[in-house]
TrEMBL record:
Alphabetical GO biological process terms: bacteriocin immunity
Protein name: Signal peptide protein
Source species: Rhodopirellula europaea SH398
Name of one Pfam family that matches: bPH_4
Domain of life: Bacteria
Length: 149
């Protein structure tokens, strides 16, 4: 397959999920403020540390959440989790609204199927992502395409 520029598609983010992820952090901060107001500085400090820990863990597993179309594979990254799916292994990519877990931050999703498993993604530009991904999959299968390095 010829060299093509990597295309990065950030994950779409649903507002309800953003609220769900941020609510524990803000609740811990609010509770810390309440404790501080009540003169319980030690407990307020503990709650502030708890808010920081929740924010760190949430960030480590969700930022960044993106999908990159490389020369020969789809790279999927959500926080520390990062892996690649070779175009040759992809059989189809279809729009979905599944609730199945995956590195996706929206219910406007894409199921990328391989023989071994389904990958659940949620790129911002879903239709364009599917079109570009399947174009690269088709080019990877075409024996007339050759490396131009």
């Amino acid at each position: 397959m010829r060299n093509t520029a990597p295309l990065v598609y950030p994950s779409a983010v649903d507002r309800w999920l953003l609220v769900l992820l941020l609510a524990p952090i803000f609740m811990a901060i609010a509770f810390a403020a309440y404790l501080l107001n009540e003169g319980r500085a030690d407990e307020a400090g503990t709650m502030t540390l708890m808010a920081a820990a929740i924010a760190a863990v949430t960030g480590v597993f969700t930022i960044p959440c993106r999908y990159t179309l490389l020369d020969d594979a789809l790279s999927i990254r959500c926080g520390l989790i990062c892996y690649q799916v070779a175009y040759a292994d992809i059989t189809e990519a279809i729009p979905s609204s599944t609730w199945i877990s995956g590195p996706a931050m929206s219910l406007k999703r894409v199921i990328v199927r391989t023989a071994k498993r389904d990958h659940i993604l949620s790129p911002e530009e879903r239709e364009r992502f599917i079109e570009e991904l399947m174009d690269r999959v088709a080019r990877s299968m075409d024996p007339s395409e050759s490396e131009t390095k």
